Amino acid sequence: MFAVQMQGIVKRFGGLVANDGIDFELKVGEIHALLGENGAGKTTLMRILYGLYTPDEGEILIGGKPVRIHSPRDAIRAGIGMVTQHFTLVPTLTVAENITLGESGSLLDLQQIETKVEALSGRLGIPVKAGTPVGQLSVGEQQRVEILKALARHARVLILDEPTAVLVPQEVQALFEVLDRLRREGISVVFISHKLHEVMTVCDRVTVLRDGRAVGTVEKSQTTPSELARLMVGRETFGVHRQGERPSTGVLLRVEGLNVKSRKGAVGLHHLSFEVQAGEVLGVAGVSGNGQAELGEVLSGMLQPESGRIWVGTQEVTGASPAELTRAGVGRIPEDRHASLVGELSVADNLVLDQLEHFSRHGVLDRNAVRRNAERLIAEYQIKALPETPIRTLSGGNMQKVLLARSLSRNPLVVIASQPTRGLDVGATDYVRGRLLEQRARGAAVLLISEDLDEIFALADRIAVLFEGKLMGILNTREATVEQIGLMMAGTPLKRSSVKEADRG
Amino acid sequence: MEIFLVGWVAATLRVATPLIFGTLGELFSERSGVLNLGIEGTMFLGAFIGFTVASKSGSLWLGFFTAVLVGMLSGWLMALLAVRLGVNQHVAGLGMTLLWTGFSLFGFRLIFGEPKVPPSITPFQSLSILPDSTFLGPVINQHGLTYVAFLLIPLTGWVLHRTRFGLNVRAVGENPEAADAAGLDVYQIRTLALMIGGGLMAGGGAFLSLAQLGAFTYGIVAGRGWVCIALIIFANWRAVGVLWGALIFGGVAALQLRLQTMGLQLPYELFLALPYLVTILALIIAGRNASAPAALLKAYRRE
Amino acid sequence: MVKFRLERVSAPLWFRPLIPLIALLVTFLLTTLLVLWAGADPLKVYYYFLIAPLSSRVALIEVLVKSTPLLLTGASVAFAFSAGYWNIGAEGQLYAGAMAGAWLGMFLGGVSPVAGIPLMMAGGFLAGAVWAFGPAILKTRLNVDEVVTTLLLNSVILFLVSYLLNGPWRSPVSMWPQSPEIAQGAHYFRLLPRARLHFGFVVGLAVIVIEWFVLQHTPLGLRMRAVGLGKKAAQFAGLNVNRTMLVAALISGGIAGLAGVGEVAGIHFHLIESISDGLGYSGIIIATLGGLHPFGVGLAAFFIGLIDTGAQSLSRALGVPVYLGTVVQAILLLVTLSLFVLQNYRLRRA
């Protein structure tokens, strides 16, 4: 008995085929993992099921009957609920108002709704405070509101898009318990993830997607993590790894007692101190939302620290603007590459935007120099574009290459790379990692902020772990284990003794 | 002095009436996420339609309600542009103002020609609840529409906070993605909010021609729409704030009129400019206007 | 109700240049109803709008006269919009320029035009920039929405002008509230004999060309466009977003001020309350129609001047109310805006 059947789903975005004839079947009362790397098409497929995208081809059956889902409203009516990565809650409304949003009726009896919400949350063991504005809740609480919202509308199918990315381990455990209870109530869950161990813990069946195709559906009991990994990646990955240890030739980036005020819905940074040596990659690991974005922004000049000091080489750059940082020798790879390039301007213009003074004479732009610069960097960084191509038409990988070209071509002393390979395909990922290691080999200090532990282990000489904006400790990569890093990511600080050891190493 | 005060209060309520209509209209639009700079033109259109229908049919109320209906159409057109198509709200709104200003003047000239004496009608009379001679008579004996306007304030607050439609309007104005995901039709809700808003704006305009003046002139609205835009900020996007804002604005304008008629030699322009300057001051003090709907000015479009 | 949704598609390249033509066609189709209501022949009306103003020397010159302030207000608005600064205040900044012109003109008796005209221009530019300064500094320092502040200041300056013209600046010899006539040395010279076309037209064309050069070929222009198209990206690249917007806002105000000076020094020779009557708002239309490109703005200003002139001869010749011109402009604006969106999207039934 299937709750949902999706047959031959095709979805194109411009030239990109995100879903290429995917078949997917969800049984009643199962937790079904949708596993795949970033960009494999998992989220696209589920956004289609939830009516956020319209498929170009293919059919959807609910309970065996073909349906047309044009909007979330249709999906809700068909008994489908979805919790997306970015929560779809209205921060100014209360929990009860958010949960009742979208229901029919004309009057709003808040008291009755709050009672109903509390009854439901009691029954499902999902505690929430019905009268609180959602904007005041923690991320884990907001996720619970999202789940309740779907269930309050009698969803029989619940889609969770990377639900653990924003959670700390304890919250993950609580979530898994909730999912287990839902399964017993006969609700089917689609669990989108790229984390093998989670999938093996909580799911009954697994469908693996790769490059927009479904490459197989397996029972959990009949598979192993390594088989799933092979299906996911589909090739023997050698990947890019750092080679050898480099002798220390001095500190290039020093951060001392850095504090950043917490903003709405985000953690701040609390008393961070660390150093990055020349020729070293310092990886910053952590569960998403524990201050990585803030750290990247502070070191890029996009966010002002409350207190603390930052040096590049011997020059103090505390509170410096992006332009001052660039002049001081900081190359910055931003987390949000789309928002960090001007989409409507050309590749050539974007490549000179941070150094216009070198491309103008007597207050006039030297168009020939701008173009020559673009031609040189396009060739050097293998950017698939012409100098006059607008940035917005580029793929994510090529955008990242533009950003790399702009910042790395000036041979910076310090490289700040925030989530540099997120959302890129395998080829582009290897390319970016290779470029970062090239900087290390050249003698630059590289700060690599990444949520991809494999990436950190492959590239970093030392690993720092952030938890709720605090540094849990720094380890030498060759002495670190995944378990130990995992503990630190969950908020267990490294023992004092081993910190000293790492410093000496 | 007492007579002066009573007269002033009475005038304040009268002057505030069109401002309340317009501001509540703009409130519906902005709470749904759309800045409607078409307000100035929609009020002008309301004044024109109200006057024309009333003068041709002989019924003031028919004129008023036709104006409201046409105002709703204007709101629908704004929604087509700014919501369905998602064009720039500033420019679309100003375009609407230009359109309705031009259209109203065009229509007025065609229907009434260019007579020496501008055409007029017998306007709405004030209610006579108390004899005019009694002390509070002038304050209490207002136009029926003035009472309607003041009743509309709590009604708007009630609609926005105690009905599902109001919840939906607030949701699409704060986070349309969330509203969409909750199964709401963002376009439809914004369209409805703009239509209600347009109706109210036109109602405010019709008050000017049907109650205040009994005529339609080129300068009948004279920037009142822009005052409403300012009032929204002053009111911090809350219905109850509209009451205080409209009373203060109305009070200053009425005071200016009364001082002028008393023959005081004051630069009355300063009084007229004062509310604008106060609004700018309020904007500065409010700082980053924290209470503006988060999705204001942002067109919503699904991927 | 038919529901539709927009789906992003890449527009065919040949479509963009056709937008003005399609917009014009749609606009005329939509206004046909009004023309029929006025009892006129639509074809004749379009003849008066598009052909008649171009068919005689007198009419053509009148089009250029009307285009003169529009070139400047359009350029003013386009300049600010390019940097993502939504200056709705060209109307007020124009009045500021006109006030400066009227004021300077009172003191320039006996001064030669060689000195007088540059002084007038400098004064007008400065006054426009000063009037634009408040909203600009509030935007860049305190993040106060510039749309509302510039809009409100448009009304404020009208009260100021009204006060001056009914009080301290009132010309004693005139029946109407207006300032004294400016000195001869402050007059813009005429470009042609027996015609109102004046030096301001040259100023307008020059500003258009300079603006094009600045936007396309200077670091300031590239910075402005980067800020206008992506504030965060510009900031990330190290541009000073606030300073760039401030500079754009002040120059924009200055250009609008030049438009005000032109009306005083080239047409009226004194300040009157209705000296603009919407020229600044027309600037927003023109900037939009011109796609924020200076040359597009130049063409749009000429076109709006054409419609304005056409509407006047229309009302004289056919008795169609002159306001048809306003309606045509408004519809043209709204249709063009819609087409700009639709060129990147395709309607799909949902």
UniProtKB/TrEMBL annotation, chain B:
Annotated transmembrane regions: 6-27, 34-54, 60-83, 90-112, 140-160, 192-210, 216-235, 242-259, 271-297
Pfam families: BPD_transp_2
InterPro entries in the record: ABC_transp_permease
Top-level division of the source organism's lineage: Bacteria
Keyword Methyltransferase annotated: no
GO MF term (any one): transmembrane transporter activity
Protein's name in the database: ABC transporter permease
Organism: Anaerolinea thermolimosa
From TrEMBL, chain C:
Major location category of this protein: membrane
InterPro entries per the UniProt record, alphabetical: ABC_transp_permease (IPR001851)
TM spans (from-to): 21-40, 46-65, 70-88, 119-138, 144-165, 197-215, 245-267, 279-307, 322-342
Cellular localization per UniProt: Cell membrane
GO cellular component: plasma membrane
Membrane keyword on record: yes
Topology class, membrane: Multi-pass membrane protein
Record carries keyword Transmembrane: yes
Alphabetical list of Pfam families matching this protein: BPD_transp_2
GO molecular function, one term: transmembrane transporter activity
Keywords: Cell membrane, Membrane, Transmembrane, Transmembrane helix
Protein name: ABC transporter permease
